[in-house]
């Protein structure tokens, strides 16, 4: 594999001619660079007018490698050939270097350039790129690669220090200005010859001028990096430059800012290929779902603004923006059913986009890079209501989206007043959180967050919110239980044409008419499984049934639009012959929430059915379908509406899962419950009102 290095544009705030004088002091030897043993000129030429000076040198470098490796290789030093093309007229120095030692086993190429700063002709820019390709080296290819890259990057910073050392030496000697080159009169034929040679030289070195592309967009010099991006090693700088340059050459859309690119590199430990793949997938996702415009286009529903207990609140001691989330006071289940997962995810994405925007603002205000924010999560009030399986499933999906598209944006997570149930939630969500992110979590139970070692170590006292014992008034909404009357009944028509972030949601909606029940088929192939369900009756009264059939049903959709009912049980089927009841009918009233489970005994198809409640439905038998159809014709406007979720788990996975916590004996949501169970089915459903 070819290792590549690309430097940022380094700026010397001195004229080109003075920098060249400092550069020439490095030869023939340079005590400031111990690995540079010396050099000799093997070829030198000048143009007739003296504007172009070409020098080729043979440079001897020592190798900082284990003695055994030197003995096997049979060398104590290596030879590099360096070609310098100095153009006084254009004020450029182009440097090419390659190795002669082991040239058939190792290929090293280096290109450097000194040029005038495009915005200030009294400054000089330096850019450097290199590649290393080890084809074979006595079986020590990996060791040689590591040694070479380590030694190379160690000398990069040293090279700049040497130039600055000689610049200071010149200035101390009273040399602070060197006149620019001026042409001397030449004959006409010499001018034509010189023009041809200059053109040939410029064309041959044209690829080395790629830094002008970078400078024409956003200068990536060392001052810029330290001011806006923070300390980076030479190889980290190289990865950033290479990835940025690759995007400029291949990406058709908006090029992300350097801070954004750097987050993906850090998330993949500066592994170039992995970071590039992750970033490309994220850019495609952003384009597909128009995330770049979410701060301009997204307006949270009033219900979300009122009950979503989260918001921005000043900053922490390190200058990071501070976001407060009162998760324990938030009715996550109610929010999901009232505004939907799509709205919740869009709101979370808008928070992340706002966080990145605030980081940029804090960077400009504080004069140092702020690339992440701090999140303070208050878990007081967290209970089993927050840990129902559909909600946890949706939460995991949201975490996955954020981890994939907003890496390295969380600087610190402060979790306070964690209750006893918190370890259950942590066990479920922690596997999806990146290890680097998990190390930023600080968890406090009870009142441990107060006093030394608590919040005061990370937040100034004047920003600790009042509900945590501080003196600062916090305007974050307090949350609260959402009335079931506010749960979604119809689809959000305003956002119907918007590109959906999720093609499938945890909860599905369905309408139920007389004679037109909604039915779902679950195929069980073999062994014991557990079918779990969770649904809310939003309008009307419904009877819930569970049947088993050995033959596969065929769907007969009543309507094509979303939320319509689907009938599976054929009109010719006879109960007790073609299919059997495995759950006693459960009458579900408007406004009720039902959670339950069923342990399967036989392979085949299990049919979950919701049908409109009738007087006869409260009994064990159901109306013939012909009579149901007649009733439907007589009252076409009467329909029921429900939100439902179901899942099939292997019995071994069900034990100890979140679904088992919600079984008929769990006391889920700490609400009074009525339990209906069937001895035949070994199952139960919980009704909460």
From TrEMBL:
SMART domains: CRAL_TRIO_N, SEC14
Family matches, as InterPro entries: CRAL-TRIO_dom, CRAL-TRIO_dom_sf, CRAL/TRIO_N_dom, CRAL/TRIO_N_dom_sf, GOLD_dom, GOLD_dom_sf, PRELI/MSF1_dom, SEC14/CRAL-TRIO_domain
PROSITE patterns: CRAL_TRIO, GOLD, PRELI_MSF1
Every PRELI/MSF1 domain range: 3-175
GO cellular component terms given for this protein: cytoplasm
All copies of domain GOLD, residue ranges: 503-648
Ranges where the CRAL-TRIO domain occurs: 300-476
Protein name: SEC14 like lipid binding 5
Organism: Vombatus ursinus
């Amino acid at each position: 594999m070819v290792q590549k290095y690309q430097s940022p544009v380094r700026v010397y705030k001195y004229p080109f001619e003075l920098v060249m004088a400092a550069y020439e002091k490095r030869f023939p030897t340079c005590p400031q660079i111990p690995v540079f043993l010396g050099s000799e000129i093997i070829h030198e030429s000048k143009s007739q007018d003296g504007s172009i000076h070409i020098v080729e040198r043979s440079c001897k470098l020592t190798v900082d490698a284990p003695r055994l490796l030197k003995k096997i290789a049979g060398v104590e030093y290596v030879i590099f050939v360096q070609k310098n093309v100095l153009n006084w007229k254009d004020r450029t120095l182009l440097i090419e270097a390659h190795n002669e030692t082991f040239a058939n086993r190792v290929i090293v190429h280096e290109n450097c350039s000194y040029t005038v700063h495009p915005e200030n002709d009294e400054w000089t820019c330096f850019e450097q790129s290199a590649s290393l390709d080890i084809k074979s080296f006595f079986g020590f290819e990996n060791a040689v690669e590591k040694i070479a890259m380590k030694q190379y990057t160690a000398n990069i910073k040293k090279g700049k220090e040497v130039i600055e050392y000689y610049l200071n030496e010149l200035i101390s000697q009273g040399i602070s200005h060197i006149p620019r080159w001026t042409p001397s009169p030449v004959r006409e034929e010499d001018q034509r010859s010189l023009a041809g040679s200059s053109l040939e030289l410029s064309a041959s070195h044209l690829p080395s001028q790629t830094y002008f592309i970078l400078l024409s967009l956003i200068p990536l010099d060392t001052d810029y990096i330290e001011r806006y991006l923070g300390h980076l090693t030479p190889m980290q700088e190289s990865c950033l430059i290479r990835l940025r340059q690759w995007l400029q050459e291949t990406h058709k859309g908006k090029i992300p800012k350097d801070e954004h690119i750097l987050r993906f590199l850090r998330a993949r430990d500066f592994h170039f290929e992995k970071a590039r793949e992750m970033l490309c997938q994220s850019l495609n996702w952003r384009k597909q779902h128009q995330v770049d415009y979410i701060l301009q286009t997204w307006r949270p529903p009033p219900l979300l603004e009122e009950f979503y207990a989260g918001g921005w609140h000043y900053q922490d001691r390190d200058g990071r923006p501070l976001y407060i989330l009162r998760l324990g006071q938030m009715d996550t289940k109610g929010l999901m059913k009232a505004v939907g997962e799509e709205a919740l995810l869009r709101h979370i994405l808008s928070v992340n986009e706002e966080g990145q925007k605030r980081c940029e603002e804090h960077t400009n205000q504080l004069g140092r890079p702020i690339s992440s924010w701090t999140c303070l999560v208050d878990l007081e009030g967290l209970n089993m209501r927050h840990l129902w399986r559909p909600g946890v499933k949706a939460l995991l999906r949201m975490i996955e989206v954020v981890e994939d598209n907003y890496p390295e944006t969380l600087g610190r997570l402060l979790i306070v007043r964690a209750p006893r149930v918190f370890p259950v939630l942590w066990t479920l969500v922690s596997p999806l959180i990146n290890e680097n992110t998990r190390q930023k979590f600080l968890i406090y139970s009870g009142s441990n967050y107060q006093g030394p070692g608590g919040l005061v170590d990370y937040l100034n006292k004047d920003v600790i919110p009042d509900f945590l014992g501080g003196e600062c008034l916090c305007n974050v909404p307090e949350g609260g239980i959402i009335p079931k009357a506010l749960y979604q009944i119809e689809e959000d028509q305003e956002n119907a044409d918007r590109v959906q972030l999720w093609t499938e949601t945890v909860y599905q909606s369905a309408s139920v008419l007389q004679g037109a029940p909604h039915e779902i088929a679950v195929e069980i192939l073999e062994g014991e499984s557990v079918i779990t369900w969770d649904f809310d009756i939003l309008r009307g009264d419904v009877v819930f049934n569970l049947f088993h059939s050995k033959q596969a049903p065929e769907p007969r959709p009543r309507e094509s639009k979303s939320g319509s009912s689907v009938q599976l049980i054929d009109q010719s089927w006879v109960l007790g012959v073609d299919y059997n009841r495995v759950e006693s009918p459960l009458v579900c009233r408007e406004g009720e929430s039902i959670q339950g489970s069923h342990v399967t005994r036989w392979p085949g198809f299990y049919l979950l059915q919701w049908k409109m409640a009738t007087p006869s439905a409260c009994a064990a038998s159901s109306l013939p379908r012909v009579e149901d159809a007649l009733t439907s014709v007589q009252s076409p406007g009467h329909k029921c509406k429900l939100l439902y979720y179901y899942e099939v788990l292997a019995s071994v996975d069900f034990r100890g899962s979140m679904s088992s916590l919600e079984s008929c004996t769990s006391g889920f949501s700490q609400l009074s419950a009525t339990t209906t169970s069937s001895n035949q089915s070994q199952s139960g459903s919980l009704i909460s009102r």
